[in-house]
Design brief:
Aminopeptidase, 2 domains, six-stranded mixed β-sheet, elongated, alpha+beta, 28% strand, 11 helices
Length: 337
């Protein structure tokens, strides 16, 4: 493999990057070229203001076979490090980009190249938000052992998801009886309410900017999310939603009560599954349980549209399990020299 360091986004590799991702060990929306390029514009909404791009690619016979989408920064342990673009807070799943058959060679070559690529001194490769089942874990452990470096892996948090059967009634039958009854009751109450209640997907380009701002207004009603939505983070969210819309994978949905936004879900409709990114609720409409009702409508829609899964991504909030989610975990891998 021939390795190369990129200190700017290699636009000439965008198509090859995304083609490789489709065959890679981990295929998630947060590893697409356009998403990571968007993330870099705001450094994750201001999470990494002092950072330098350090993307490392590998090719064989002129064909792209590996991407380590990295940047340099001082990590949370106050150590000079190489981290994955997208780290840490706003990109739920990350990884190296390579096919399974190339992974061991790519991981070993990556460590050797990064050590001698002329990068400013770094002490560790600090990789957040990998699936605990990612083949990268074993490949990096093997590569680290081969050069006498240390390897450490720690569990970060849960990432619940719902496998979908493709049928609404079959899905309901699979969850707890009490929860099934509660979902039916709340949906029926919304349908029978005197107010006009309906779900709407944001799809009109002329309304997109208003819908983006309306969604963040819903988010900001939660004090924790209001604190999260700094000016930099608001700009990041705007850019991500515009990027997803441009690439036809934005699912921005609202439950509207008499034409007013009562709840919203920001998700990605990608790879035949729904990736739930964030949500917001207007407490003025609490009597209608707008968050639960909208989530019920979205799960019904996803089943009817034969989506294979409904991924809540990181966070172990109770409501996810009440809707039938099962756990996975994401981890942090640290390779130190």
């Amino acid at each position: 493999m021939e390795f190369k360091l990129h200190t700017r986004f290699p636009s000439e590799l965008q198509a090859e990057w995304n083609d490789l991702l489709e065959q890679a060990i981990t295929h998630v929306p947060f590893l697409r070229y356009e998403y990571l390029e968007t993330w870099w514009q705001t450094r994750g909404g201001g999470e990494w203001p002092k950072s330098e791009l350090a993307i490392i690619t590998a090719s064989r016979d002129g064909k792209l076979v590996g991407v380590a989408p990295l940047f340099q920064a001082t990590n949370r342990d106050d150590q000079p490090s190489l981290l994955l673009l997208g780290s840490i807070e706003v990109s739920d799943y990350l990884d190296l980009i390579a096919r399974a058959d190339d992974l061991d060679e790519f991981a070993a070559g990556l460590l050797a190249f990064a050590a001698g690529a002329g990068l400013p001194a770094w002490k560790m490769i600090d990789l957040y938000n990998l699936f605990e089942t990612s083949p990268s874990l074993a490949a990096l452990q093997k590569a680290a052992k081969g050069v006498g470096w240390s390897y450490r892996c720690e569990i970060l948090q849960q990432a619940p998801y719902i496998p979908l059967p493709g049928d609404w009634e079959t899905y309901l039958a699979s969850i707890d009886k009490k929860q099934r009854h509660e979902i039916r009751r709340k949906l029926r109450r919304a349908q029978e309410a005197a107010a006009e209640i309906e779900m709407r997907f944001a799809g009109d380009p002329d309304r997109l900017e208003a819908d983006i701002e309306g969604f963040m207004t819903l988010m900001a009603q939660d004090p924790d999310k209001a604190a999260f939505l700094t000016p930099g983070m608001r700009e990041h969210m705007r850019l991500v939603m515009r990027c997803a819309s441009k690439n036809c994978c934005l699912q921005l949905s609202f439950l509207e009560v008499n034409g007013e936004k009562a709840a919203g879900y920001l998700s990605f409709d990608y790879l035949n599954r729904i990736w739930v990114y964030n949500s917001g609720i207007d407490q003025r409409f609490a009597e209608y349980s707008p968050g639960w009702v909208l989530l019920g409508y979205l799960l019904k829609w996803a089943n009817e549209q034969k989506r294979a899964g409904f991924d809540f991504m990181r966070g172990n909030e109770e409501y996810k399990y009440r809707f039938g989610a099962v756990d996975r975990q994401v981890v942090r891998v640290v390779v130190s020299r």
